Amino acid sequence: MAAALIRLCTSSLEGLFRFLLKRGNDLSPDMMDAVIWRFQLAGSVFKIITITVVFYIAWRKLIRYKSLVDSSDRFDMGKLQEEYFGDKLSSLTADSIGQLLQIWAVILIGAECVYTVSTVIYRRFTAELMLLVVSGAQYSSFVTLYNLSHGFKYIEMLTAILLGFFMTGIFLRDNRIMMVTAAIAGIFLLAFGIVQMHTVSLPGREVVIVWTSVIFHLTETVGLFMFSLYLSRKYRGL
User: Where are the alpha helices (DSSP H) in 22-110?
Assistant: First the structure.
């Protein structure tokens, strides 16, 4: 609820700011206005920081509450709570609440980070597109546009796969899975925003490597296979 309120207030302020500042005779997109862009970027950073603080406080509060009861007494206290709640209210264990906190922290904070990076890349893409309209098409500009936009092709599916990895790590309480997943996400965002395409010369032809494509296809094939192999070796069903 706190995270939703933060997002609502920030989005409302951004909308109001754009409405007040936008000039009626300017046909360029709002994001191309430097002042509006800085305000929007500051809003995204603010949301990331404040939502992280909200979830951190909630996590620390949960740890403090758990420490008030000995682990040997938690089951009996849970039964008492269920009797007190009655049939109309469902009860959750502290561990379940902790897992839900981790899941929604990853979704809300991680998604905001992806959105922020995507917005930066999309603004660069739009600027290049406007430059083409003004100056005429050039091959170098096409290459830049192709590289900037290529990550959008994979980001949705890669996000879904990485969320699956991370959620599995949360439920299994496996920090190794979560760390590797975070590393893959960071490398993809780095390649998406900074790394340019590379050309490799082979006999008779040249191959252009788009690194966002390489990372995605390795993750969905080799990464998924290694992930399933790791689970099958380390965990056993009952």
Answer: 34-67, 74-85, 94-105
Chunked mean pLDDT (size 10), the chain, 238 residues: 88 84 61 82 92 94 88 80 74 82 88 83 77 64 67 80 90 91 90 73 70 85 89 76
Question: Does one domain contain both 119 and 49?
Answer: yes
Please tell me whether residues 129 and 150 are part of one structural domain: no
User: Among all chains, which residue has been given the structure tokens 């430097």?
Assistant: 34
Q: Which amino acid is at 17?
A: F
Q: Nearest-CA neighbor of 131 among 141, 119, 118?
A: 141
How far is residue 8's CA from residue 51's CA, in Å, rounded to a whole number?
A: 12
Per-residue pLDDT at 71: 80
pLDDT of residue 29: 65
Q: Which domain holds residue 149?
A: 138-238
Domain end (from 136, 163, 185): 136
At 178 the pLDDT is 92
Q: Alpha carbon of 96 to those of 92, 103, 106, 148: distances in Å? A: 6, 11, 16, 40
* Statement to judge: residues 127 and 144 lie in one domain: no
Q: Residue type at 156? A: E
How many Å apart are CA 35 and CA 187, to the nearest integer?
30
* Cα 42 off chain centre by: 17
CA distances from 20 to 14, 24, 35 (A): 10, 10, 12
User: Are 49 and 130 in the same domain?
Assistant: yes
Number of domains in the chain: 2
